[in-house]
Amino acid sequence: MALEDYASVVGPEVIDHLRQLARPLKGMKVVHINSTKLGGGVAEILDTLIPLTNELQIDTTWEVVTGSADFYECTKSIHNGLQGSQAPISDRLWREYEKTNVDNAERLRGLLEPADIVFIHDPQPAALINHCPNRKGKWIWRCHIDLSHPSRPVWKYLRQHVARHDASIFSLAAFAPPLQHPMYLIPPSINPLNDKNRELTPEERNSVYGQFGIDPQRPLVSQISRFDRFKDPIGVIQAYKLAKKFTPGLQLALAGGGATDDPEGEIVLNEVRAAAEGDPDIHVILLPPDAHVSINAIQRASDIVLQKSTKEGFGLTVTEALWKGKPVIGGDTGGIRLQITNHHTGFLVSSPEGAALRIRYLLGDRQKRESIGEKGREYVRNNFLITRHLREYLTLIHGLINPERDRVEFN
Amino acid sequence: MALLSPKPEMEKVMEENVIQDPQILIPDPFAVKDCALIALATGKRSQNLRELSNNLREIPQASVYYHFWGGLLLPRFEEREYNNDFAAWARHALHDNTLAERLAVVDPSEHPDIEGLRHEVLDIVEQRLDEVGHVPWSKIDQQFEFLLSKMVVFDTKMRFNTPRELAGHVNQLPLGGFFYHFIDARRRPPEKVDDFSSWLAGFGGEYDALRGKLAAVDPYFTTLIQLRKRISDIFEDYFEGGEHGA
To answer: How far apart are CA B64 and CA B119, in angstroms?
Structure first.
């Protein structure tokens, strides 16, 4: 997909803004580093962002850090710790974290040190900066996690690496800890034209019914998420069971894939299967990382989409569902709050009971579902598409190379 | 929208005003800009009214500005209940309606500089702390987050050679552009007036009446869409009615 393809969705002026921003940055070398090419919102964003930035003639590459099972166990624990889990991380795992960063720095140094701009995504590669002493450019730590109430020991450890960067990016103000460098607030985004979000053909839309045994004649609620405790899939099943008493034909689809950097997914998946046992209307669907069309079809087949997270960095599945014109019932937490306004784009809830109440309310009022769906789609169009995201990354680069100026102006 | 060679209308303006020196009395075409804000966290947050007061003394002027004016560019589904973030926080996080109402009537356009505005807010907060005799607190997840912003200004390539041309397009200006020209311009030295008035002044005294009407508009207690409509109406009324009509 080329930049001009997005003009039909966001308007040509938005594309022109990107070209104005990119012109002075032409030829610059930008590197993004994260820990997986497949699965999870970060990989999906980079999948779109990298070619668009290159089309703007900014030389942009994307590399991943690789490590052992112990490394991923450690980074999953860091992730959970930053989101508030108090489980300690052993010295052995911390050593593996450091060693993996040393090894990856060795492998990537030739790319990282001469780069003008380096984006380090999330905790996994955060220690690379210590091992690139001759770095030439600006390094930015991009945090996609809810960092509002972290485990203090975990954050204390990570902070020493983060603080060495030239700037950081958070999805919400509440996630930004006290740091001495500039802290930009940039929510993530979706690509309206990729397989996960584009319009589907009737055949593609209908494929979901036969493939997953869903009855098109009966109402469907769904949650699309990794099988992760913070996404509260068990709470979703509880909410479904409460709502089903009043809507006997109700079906639930709990669909998600694993990310290659998430070793805990299988344990949670087994818990979910146990909770769903005995109810043929609960469809627990484990999807491969590239099942974008299936996810798209399940969201479009749903009457209501849930994202009942108890912690959430941003919640791109909420964005995806709003873009498809679906009302969303979401956990009252993190970035979900930025996307859901009660009665306008869906409902924020704090318990399975609250979710059940809103399911009942919305299932009983088709007109309300449709009007919420329309508002949600426009809200996403104006705020959470990849073009806005790219504009803000480019603005940030201007801000870092001209730190004394409070505005960037093009004539 | 007109391009850059509008001579017939310019000449008409000159004739009407018996203008001899175009260097002085024909300003450059009005160049329409668009803008977007990118927010930054200051790292300062307040969970109670005393902390708010302390932080208010220290935050950069850009943060005070952002919490009064930045909200105009944020997406909303309904009109703002309160016109600045301090008042909204007092109501929704501290549940102090009296404080919220007092903060809500603070009009930033009455202050020639941000320091004056900062001190008015501080006075209200300190007075409230004296009155209530205790420090009101918010929940941990409803703290006041002090933000500021950087602005990026784009060139839309839209140019208007005469006020009459501009009048027909005010209501179609991008909202970001309208913010830039009518709100942001007021803090840009040396004139610190909106860009429309500044440009109109370049035509000599011809448009003083129109400038007077623009100056009478209160830019604060409304939404950006309503404000744009109001300015558009003023322009259109000026040219369609009265002595300046066709």
So the answer is: 10
